[in-house]
Amino acid sequence: YESAGTSAAHTHAVGFAFPEWAYKPESSPGSRQIQLWHFILELLRKEEYHDVIAWQGDYGEFVIKDPDEVARLWGARKCKPQMNYDKLSRALRYYYNKRILHKTKGKRFTYKFNFNKLVLVNYPFIDMGSGRGVPQSAPPVPTGGTHFRFPPSTPSDVLSSSEELRSPGMFSSVARRMARGSVSDCSDGTSTNSELEEAVGADERGVGPERAFRGLLPPRLPHDSLFRGPPRAFPVSPLPGPGGLLAQTLSPALSMTPTPHLPYTPSPSLSSPMVGSHFSFNPEDMKHLLQAHTQSVYNYHLSPRAFLHYPNIVIPQPHRPTPEKPAAQHLHGPPLPLRHFCLCLVCGLGNVSYVEPISDIESEEEVEVTDISEEDEPNHNDDKGDFFTPMARHYHDQITNECQANRNGSSPSAPLPPHNNHDEDPDDDEVFKTPATPPVGSGSLAFPLIGLKTEPGQAAPLSPGGTRCIPLKLRFKRRWSEDQKMEADGERDEAEDKKVRAEGMEKLEGKERGRRGEEVENGAGRGGGVILGLMLPPPPTQRRASSELQRATAQLSLENTGC
DNA sequence: CACGGAAACA
DNA sequence: TGTTTCCGTG
């Protein structure tokens, strides 16, 4: 039923529900097979596999405790009985270039997802705290465990229908595709296992909508369900009144679809931002968030687009957040994600329409951004700024698109207006590129924030092809760079860069790629962000009795019956 | 054990 | 495109 779109969120384990699609393994367009990294994430989420693979110290870092077993499981899933760690690891190494992963040097069988930057940076209210050293079972959680609540009663289903995570490669690709509207339904591609899982998920879902988002996801959720969250997270469901607005307001990409997204009605009043500690998905909070976002944007001179999607939400100032870590403790997932999630959530929720045309232009910006990434100096003052990184944006877009797609129908691909399709720019640009938006109606702005869009200086609104001011880009870059630094992995991505750059170079051909330096090294941008979101472990509190069932299912799913 | 090229495959 | 398979190198 997932495919149908009904399910929307798995509230169950996770307090937070993310739309399934968000996490769904998607593969390249067309094929929906599960990808290795999705699978890894899936295993990491499940307690049953903690002896085989588990999160380790840093955010996103995991250790394969039993390589042979992991390989076996993977082989089972892919019906490749001959699979072994040597082969699996080769596949993993391919992720280096894609920046999905990188190797933790010196540690055997230890790899790390690249989402850090994104996540951390973006979610000020969540404090990652030190993730290191956290026990697997309880991966380091963001210190500022915030309580996120989804607005009660939001229907979620819409979202769920199409779920796939798109780009394995990265956010970028995902974003693009998403933007375009190519959404696919998870149902088809996913393995039977998924289905099973889904079923389970349904079980779990019973949970009420308002689950607080305390921690990260619980390990057991099926990968598919990761994001499924309660609709709340991504407001897709139609709400009365605002719904209409929402629909319009949706991100440009989304705009195509008429369906309303936001569940909550934006209220004009924005009070002080909630400080880190509590963040709920109420209209109010969301507003704050948005507002914050907006501010940050301004502060950083970012282009309006950055926050378009977030309606009146005010975000808590990063530094101030009061850390409350309530639920976070039990997280099974990597710590990072929270922030991202928040963002995503926000975005989803808040998606407001941004009038600005995103398409091509965006790409440009993005590109710029990329460059920046490396260059910039790190400013840690996140204060407001960090919130929206390009990635975040993309993520949003993605989500939105997904949502849209979902709404439209579960059918997998929802066509969006093609924008730039250069589709593939291999480069990261993608990452930054925002989905193109349909010029048209999307523009209607529902919220005040929108006005911001006109940012001083740059904002060039509108025209799809419109161009962006460079300055903004630069600023963006700064931000981006900052974010990256936030990442703080010592490791960095040199490795990543290597090839990436090379690739990029190649790619330059067609477009103006000069910016190459960009490659966001970490990839955090890309895949990472998304991933993170996916990753979030559900608050322990929610665990339910059904665990056994889940497990069983999980097992099945992992095992892949199809073969 | 890790890396990455090359070729094959779906 | 994303591995899977094989393999030489360090």
TrEMBL record:
MF GO annotations: DNA-binding transcription factor activity, RNA polymerase II-specific; sequence-specific DNA binding
Residue ranges of the region described as Disordered: 136-166, 182-205, 362-389, 403-448, 483-563
Pfam family, one: Ets
Entry keywords, A to Z: DNA-binding, Nucleus, Transcription, Transcription regulation
Cellular localization per UniProt: Nucleus
Domain spans labelled ETS: 34-114
SMART domains noted in UniProt: ETS (SM00413)
UniProt KW Nucleus keyword: yes
Gene Ontology biological process terms in this record: cell differentiation
Composition skew (Acidic residues), residue ranges: 362-377
Compositional bias per record (Polar residues), positions renumbered to this chain: 184-194, 403-413, 543-563
Compositionally biased region (Basic and acidic residues): 483-519
A cellular-component GO term for this protein: nucleus
Annotated family: Belongs to the ETS family.
Name under which the protein is recorded: ETS domain-containing protein
Record organism: Monopterus albus
Taxonomic path: Eukaryota, Metazoa, Chordata, Craniata, Vertebrata
